Amino acid sequence: MNQLTALVQIKGIRDGLLAAFTDAPWDEQKQALLAQIDEKPAFFQGARLAMDVGAQILKVNDLVDLRDFLSERNVSLWAVISESPITEQTAQLLGLATRISKPRPEERKQTLEASDESALFINKTLRSGTRVEFPGNVVVVGDVNPGAEIIADGNVIVWGRVRGMIHAGCRGNRSAMICALDLSATQLRIADEVSAVLKPQKDPKPEIASINKEGRLQAELWQTG
To answer: What does the pLDDT look like over 171-189, one tens digit per residue?
Structure first.
C-alpha cells in the first residue's frame, strides 16, 4: 500500500465511491485524496463521492474548499459520514448527506481472493447493488442489471444484457476486452479508459469493447464465427 492509499482508501459502493480517511492531519488527507484523483482522472470523471472522515472535526470552510477542488475535477461530493457532531452539522448545513444506504445482505459486495483459477463463472443475473471483483477473467451467464458492478483484472464476458458498470483490465491491462450480447452499460472501463453512457439499443447485437490503436475505448460487432 503506497502513501496515498494509506491515508485515504477509496472503494466502490452502491451510490458511487466512498473515501475512507485516517486520523492524519486534514490537509494531508485532503492532498492524498486529490492526488489519487489526479493520478487517474479518467477513472474518477463524473464520480459521486461520499467520505467517511471518522472523528475528524471539519468546519464549513474545510468542506467548501474540498468540494470546490473536487468540482474542478468533475467529482461530486454528496455525503460526509462522521463520528463528530460538529462535522455532521457542517455537512448538513452544506446540504450534504450524512448517511449512506447499506446494501441488503444478498446485495453485499462480493470480493474473491486470487486463486489457481483464471476465470470466475457466474450463472445468474447480477442485481442492483451487487459488486463482483476478481483477479482474472469473469464470465456471466445472465444479465448485469443497472446498479450492478463487475471489476476484473482480465476480460469480462456477459452472455446476456449489460445495463450496469463493467471495468475490465482494472490493474492497467489495456488489452482486456468486454463482450456482451447487449452492451448498453451505464459505464464501461478498460484500464484507465472510460466510455460515455451507452443508450439501450432497439435492435441489440453482440458487441465487443476494447481499446483501439488510437488508444480509445470502442465497441464493435462481436463476430463469433
So the answer is: 888 999 999 988 887 788 9
